[in-house]
Amino acid sequence: MKKFLSLFLALGLLQAGAAFGGVIQDWSNVQSGNAGPYNDSASKVEFTFDAGPKGGEKSLKITSNISANGYAGIYTNPGGVDLSKFGNLKFMAKATVPGDVQIAITDAFGVQYVSKFTIPSKDWTEVNVPLASFSKDPYYTPPQAVLGHPMDLSKVGNLNFSPQAKGDEIIWVGPVSADGAPGASAASSASASSSTTSAVAVPSGPSVPVLDIATLDSKSAGTFQDSQGSSFTFTTKENPSKKGDQYLAINYVLTQGGYCGMWARAGGNDWNGVNLKDKKVISMTIYSKEPVSLGLAIKDATNNQYVLDTPMTKGGKWETVVVNLSDFKLDPYYTPPDAKKGAPEDLSKVTGFNIQAKTVGKFTVAVDNVVAK
Q1: Closest C-alpha among 116, 127, 129, 112 to residue 172
Q2: How many CA atoms lie within 13 A of 42 on its CB side?
Q3: Is residue 183 within 8 Å of 87, Cβ to Cβ?
């Protein structure tokens, strides 16, 4: 999907850079060829450099119009900087349509890693993105990438921004800095890890269960994993604070470049599915000690699979994660054998709901109250 990376990697944009802190991209002197657009054929994106959040500063201004199932963004090259001694990326940002933005970097082995942050306001707001929140891009591997290594931030070659809102949007990103110690969590209220409750508005009205955890058994749910050391297990447990309520307890190990997750029956205690045609969002509560992102997949009435990654949680408490159903995209790498290829999305009968590990490492995650509104 993201063939844009091969274009500028082939041009040799990964430059050697000394280790340093402070500003890694100030937008004031971006050389020709070190920034450019990428998009699908139905979407449009362009960029320029505009006034920044403070006097004398510059910002990256991205103007996009993204189709319903499309993508678009801007690649930039900070010059092969050493981020191995830091914990966060920090910058000011604002947007005409507050919401999620995907950020991508390439490491010393040329492998692409992605995370998400939220721009919560039309006014300049500080954003922190923990470097620990980045996980290997499941949809794109640059052709020059050397696989089989842990993420190596000693030479970060690319810094890319991809708006997630569909339709027209303008976002501004101020000078990007590196700070904090490796593994440290960001503290800003507008950070990537705090995007779980503010990124998407929850509509009023009744909700319908997308995942009836209490009815899951060996016939209605199962697991999948690679052969490179990743693993995924789950069980259902009684919620001690809510008698009669079951939550999903997940333990997983995700290796670099690997995958693991679970498939499950959507809706109630049969395979008739759930009608999400008139619903706008999926809401769920997640607990993890550390920040974590999960991949979600739904199987529609035409048996095609649509996927989305949740924003990073903050960690350490139960958090409500809300995602737009309109943000799910047709899975570019897996088509179920019974799918009607080329059929338009039809959420009148969603029969499958999958959860996949996205954050690399060993995690214990609890999931509850998966509903659509």
Answers
A1: 127
A2: 8
A3: yes
List of residues 6+ apart from 240 with CB closer than 8 A: none
Single out the residue of 288, 289, 305 nearest to residue 297, CA to CA: 305
- How confident is the model over 131-176, as pLDDT tens digits? 888 888 888 888 888 887 788 999 998 999 999 989 999 999 999 9
Half-sphere exposure of 308 (CA within 13 A, CB side): 23
All residues at 6 or more sequence positions from 55 whose CB lies less than 8 Å from its CB, including other chains:
none
| Report field, pTM of the whole predicted structure over 0.70 | no
Q: What is the largest CA-CA distance in the chain?
A: 62
In angstroms, rounded to a whole number, what is the distance separating the alpha carbons of residues 331 and 328?
9
pLDDT in tens, 180-238: 877 533 333 233 333 343 345 666 678 899 999 999 998 999 999 999 899 999 999 98
Residue 23: count of CB within 10 angstroms of its CB: 17
Question: Residue for token digits 């089989």?
Answer: 148
Query: Is-contact 102 329, C-beta < 8 A?
Result: no
